[in-house]
Amino acid sequence: MPQLSPYRRLFRLPGTRAFTAGNLIARLPMGMFSVSAVVMIAGSRGSYALAGAVTATGLAATALVAPWIARLVDRHGQARVALPATMIAVLGSLCLLLCVHHDAPDWTLFASYAATATTPNTGGMSRARWAHLLAGDPEALHTANSFEQAADELCFMLGPVLAAFLCGAFFPEAGTLVGSVLLLTGMVLFTTRRATEPPVRAHIPGKAPLRAPGIPPLLAVCLAMGAVFGATEVVTLAFADAQGRQSAAGVVLALQAAGSCGAGLLYGAVKPAGPAAARLPWCVAAMAGLLALPLLAAALTGSLLALAAALLVAGMATAPTMVTTMTLVQERTPEGRLNEGMTLAVTGLLGGIACGSAIGGWTVEHLSPTAGYVVPVTAASVALALSLRRASNRFTVIPTHH
């Protein structure tokens, strides 16, 4: 297909296929862990509220720890920091598995899942490699960012399906166990590909990304968008479970990610129209509008098939919105702090996912799964209001990183 030629040009660069393969293996579990934890905990303890609270706690801990891990990566290199941090996270996942299996007190679930907060931002490290390799070529970097977002969506597409299959076909802890093995294996492969790793600077100039002009408004938008993702996942799992079709939940969530993945690849194959700052409000508006479809499908039909189709269409706005957001983060992050800057954006998303998971779980348990779809619509509307406010206040800044 002619529109995919920009991607072929990317992977002609030496070493790009090797680091991408390892990164994809390490990234796949990010679509597995939360679904596996929800299925494992809700099945063992009979409470979606508890499952949502545990995953929310882990994500909140990640929001606090991840920027510190990313700062260490910028200062000491990906290979020296990412692998030890991954090993700690894997131990936390295995501890959660054992606590659930042996019916340990609820507080041990929170503590174990919080230990997974040291998981490095694999997508951010990959984007940092592309930014290093494609310095001075913004169109190629746009394509690379779109590929990375499509890879994220691919992992969210395959991860829930794999997690639901493993937990249902074998035993409830199987999703967490396999995810841990994949994470550690992929990180070993990724970090041993040193040729494409960005060089470590003896001194990192510039202010912290959190204090850079234009970054805080973007983080607020990320927080609201994260709530969309967190609520949608928990509510969809509960909606499928209420119909006695929990095993189909992974497929339904995968369709949403498939819509985003396809849209992301197409978005990266075309030249961006105008600056990213001008495109962001339009992308968020599309996301907010399309998210009304799952709510309508659940409320008017009650059909899991109709819901799946609605989520497929709704997902098409996700990747363009995330690519545009990450492009703005790259533009506005001080030089030498790219891992930290992108991890702050992911931290905002994780914080939002934590809030969305908790609110979605509460809504499902106290109202209904259908009512739960009001949560992502509300969160998307907040993201739209924030992006419009940012645009109206003219947060135009001179890029500090290229």
UniProtKB/TrEMBL annotation:
Record's keyword terms, sorted: Membrane, Transmembrane, Transmembrane helix
UniProt xrefs under SUPFAM superfamilies: MFS general substrate transporter
Transmembrane segments: 20-41, 48-69, 81-100, 217-240, 246-268, 280-300, 306-329, 341-364, 370-388
Protein name per its UniProtKB record: Transporter
GO molecular function: transmembrane transporter activity
A Pfam family matched in the record: MFS_1
